[in-house]
Fold:
Amino acid sequence: MVLAAQRGEAAAVRELYDAYRDRIWTLILFSLGDAQQAQDVLQTVFFKVFRGLGSFRFESSLFTWIYRIARNECWDHRRRRAAPHVPLEAILGSREEMDPNPLGNGPETRAERDLVLKQAVMRLPLKMREVIVAQVRGRTVL
Structure:
């Protein structure tokens, strides 16, 4: 089956996927704890399996090889998704840093606040900026 899949035979590729999908799905689901994220990782794992199948050297069982790819992808996924711990003071500032005269709610102050926010977001690293922009969907700020 592996040799046929390495040659690109579609039936063998499908058979390989069907043979290992459920066991790999279980590993990923229990590793991540979220079915939607697990589905994304499962697709990535089998994409990597099929892309790398030509380099499979038969030094271990195929399941062991796929399992290792899945485990590494779960680790990578958790690492990418892990939010850094940020103390509340770093977000709000200390009492000494807080403005005793905050801006009002008028149109000019909202525009000024939006400009300051946009400038601050643009100074963030790209990955952090993407998270902020994704969270602001409902409001046109950026």
